[in-house]
Write a structure and sequence with these properties.
Layout: E1 5-7, H1 13-23, E2 26-30, H2 36-50, E3 67-69, E4 86-90, H3 103-124, H4 128-131, H5 138-142, E5 149-155, E6 169-172, E7 178-182, E8 189-192, E9 198-200, E10 208-212, H6 214-219, E11 229-231, E12 243-245, E13 248-250, E14 257-259, E15 262-263, H7 264-274
Parallel strand pairs: 1-2
Antiparallel strand pairs: 2-10, 3-4, 4-5, 5-12, 5-13, 6-11, 7-10, 7-13, 8-9, 8-11, 14-15
Length: 281
């Protein structure tokens, strides 16, 4: 399975991008309007954070889902072993840890602005009957949303003591509308095709990977696919190195109705309980 690489400034980019999301659920944007130096500097700051003891001063709030999540806190839905990762949840209202500059906010804002463009492309490419089923335009769903999330992820070097069934991120689908992922610092991301086979997702160091989330799949009557993906354990020298990534998960406002009887809030709460990040009441 070859993921379509779409040149952002190509006049046909909107149609090519939407077609890839429709057929595969993933697309790779080439030369997006995201400054590469900003990405590199943001990674460097968070690498220092994860390598320090200060991270434990910012443990997450279970109700607000903001802050630092220690190693092996999360496990994929329907999977028995926790993922081999630690991460930090950054919302617009989250306080940055000491030592983290406003570069993270600059990157956050760049990604949200780009996401608004991409959602417009997605909506315009919907068949008329599917577009009429939307409870509101996609751009309206995210207007003023405080729910979009930049997740800073650290996959530590493997220790050879992990359970055989434990991997960096088990197979899952994202819960949000779309996810924007600047190039990670190492390989490992894979996507599953219709036959159940796994394929490595390759992009250049300045490319942006975009995928469909379950909320968009639900809102569009499955026209856009939410595709299973995972981060596998590396071998050789790569196993001795950390991997960092920082996806932006674009979320609607909580009260937005995705489809009859299901709001963005209720859908998200159900998923958080399924993956162990929210206690079952």
């Amino acid at each position: 399975m070859d993921l379509l690489k779409v040149e952002y400034r190509d006049p046909d980019a909107p149609l090519k991008f939407a077609k890839s999301l429709h057929q595969i659920g993933f697309a790779v944007l080439v030369d997006p309007p995201i400054p590469p130096q900003l990405v590199a500097e943001t990674y460097a700051e968070w690498q220092r954070f994860f390598n320090s003891e200060q991270k434990y001063d910012y443990r997450f709030d279970p109700q607000r889902q903001s802050g630092y999540f220690p190693f092996q806190t999360e496990q994929a839905k329907d999977y028995s072993c926790p993922d081999l990762k630690e991460f930090f949840h950054l919302y617009r209202w989250t306080e940055l840890p000491a030592g983290i500059s406003d570069r993270s906010w600059q990157l956050f804002n760049c990604l949200v602005e780009l996401a608004e463009v991409l959602l417009h492309w997605v909506e315009q490419a919907l068949p008329p009957d599917r577009r009429s089923q939307l409870t509101m335009p996609l751009s309206t769903m995210i207007a003023g949303s405080q729910e979009s999330l930049l997740r800073l992820i650290h996959y530590p070097p493997l220790q050879k003591t992990e359970l055989a069934s434990s991997i960096r991120a088990a197979a899952h689908e994202d819960v949000n509308l779309i996810t924007l992922l600047p190039a990670a610092t190492a390989v490992g991301l894979e996507v599953q095709d219709n036959q159940g086979d796994w394929h490595q997702v390759l992009g250049g160091p300045e490319d942006l990977i975009v995928n469909v989330g379950d909320m968009l799949q639900l809102a569009t009557g499955r026209y856009y696919r939410s595709t299973a993906h995972r981060v596998v354990n590396p071998s050789g020298d790569w196993a001795k190195q950390s991997r960092f990534s920082m996806p932006l998960f674009l979320h609607p406002r909580p009260e937005v109705i995705l489809t009859e009887g299901i709001t963005a809030h209720s859908y998200l709460q159900d998923r958080l309980r399924q993956i162990g990040l929210l206690e079952v009441s």
